[in-house]
Amino acid sequence: MEQVFSYIISLGASVMMPIIFTVIGLCIGMKFGKALKSGLFVGVGFVGLGIVTGLLTSNFSDPLTAISELYHLQLNVFDMGWPAAAAVAYNTAVGALIIPICLGVNFLMVLTKTTRTVNIDLWNYWHFAFIGAVVYFVFDQSLFWGYFAAIICYMITLVMADLTAEKFQKYYNLPGISVPQPFCQSFVPFTLCIDWVLNKIPGFSKLDIDAEGLKKKFGVLGEPLILGVIVGALIGAVAQLDIKKILFLGVTMGAVMELIPRITKLFIDGLMPISEKTKEIVNKKFNGKKVHIGMSPALVIGHPTTLVVTLLLIPTYLVLAVILPGNQFLPLASLAGLFYLFPMMLPFTQGNVVKTFVVGLVALLVGLWFVTDMAPDFTKAAAAVFAATQDKAADVPAGFEAGSMDFSSSLFGYAIYAALKYIKWIGAGALVVVTLAMMFVNRRNILADEKRVAEELSSEKVSE
After folding, report:
1. CA-CA distance, 463 to 459, in Å (whole number)?
2. CA distances from 133 to 130, 151, 202, 381, 384 (A)
3. CA distances, 338 to each of 190, 307, 331, 423 (Å)
4. Partners of 117 in the beta sheet?
5. Backbone torsion region of residue 240, taken as left when φ is above 0, otherwise alpha when ψ lies between -120 and 50, otherwise beta
6. Is the separation of the CB atoms in 22 and 38 below 8 Å?
7. DSSP classification of residue 329
8. What is the pTM of this model?
9. What's the pLDDT tens digit per position in 6-33?
10. What is the pLDDT of residues 165-210, one digit of tens each?
């Protein structure tokens, strides 16, 4: 088994994932040509991510080193962005089988009525694989602990998708849809707690900003390309480089911010046919029963409040990251994924810009400590993946450790990682208890809802 996994991993994600997705496509009834094309889109996406991440690491490692030396900063965790996290996730033994294993877990949970969500957001399965991969290396490449971490994260996320589905559907007017993406769902506890505190402050709930109006005023400044150019040029200026190098860094960072979303579209193009076929099967098999279709949060990141709060947070986040005690991580590539912070916040803050900004800022600052603490093990995982596959996305610059806001700063991911690393068996026991308790509560809710629907149908028949 070890030799089989080693061979699969040595292929690299750009070769391994097209094979896996082609097989999945065939298993669910897609034609070979369509399944192969879907798989190849995913493979091409990984090639693109490697190129873009290499562009970032090769050009920004020296300026960041210079900034650390000039201003005596301890920012030795390099922001590899989610491409590196995804590369680590899918280039390990855990990632090789994460999709079929999680689909099996999802099927069992639907059968036992511990979830109503069928997660067809296959691309974002890398979040589960990532936390599993990091834990896998924490315990000297233990498949047991790697899959344990990934599956626990998956189960918790499915339950959270159910518990938040009603509010999500009502706020965005998307009936039947839930978001089983752990990065988004991990900000729900922050939102509930901070929103409760803010509501206790007299008059605070009345504070708000016209998100739609501000979105129009930002104009071209709201484009990722322009934001990237500004951030890159500022890094060059702070590093006291010449004007030629400053301009080059600006354009390079702009390219990274613009290209990452475009490359992400390749993954979506590859996975959408598989997701649609899966949705068709789900609708056929569960006809008449209430089922949530788990979709990507990309559906709703265009909300005006999301754009406005993201633009307000970026400069604040960068400044506070530099001065936050105990933090060693400066967000760069991760800024391209900042929009994904908010999809599950807005249904609870009701799109209030001020509330959303406060919740987002607190969550991001706490996440900096998560990233810093996880960096040594993320680096170990990335180094092993790069040695096995030569995948540029996992190549950590010399003198730095690896970090990423997504998924390292996630409350769910970090809590699972910390519980297992620092208190191992006790932590594992606590995670099992919490997960089972959440599943029990969710099952009780599902059964109560089914009973209510049955009673309503019965009363309608009697009245007829």
Report:
1. 6
2. 5, 12, 46, 7, 11
3. 16, 10, 10, 31
4. 292
5. left
6. yes
7. B
8. 0.81
9. 666 566 667 777 887 788 788 878 889 8
10. 999 999 988 888 899 999 999 999 999 999 999 888 888 777 777 6
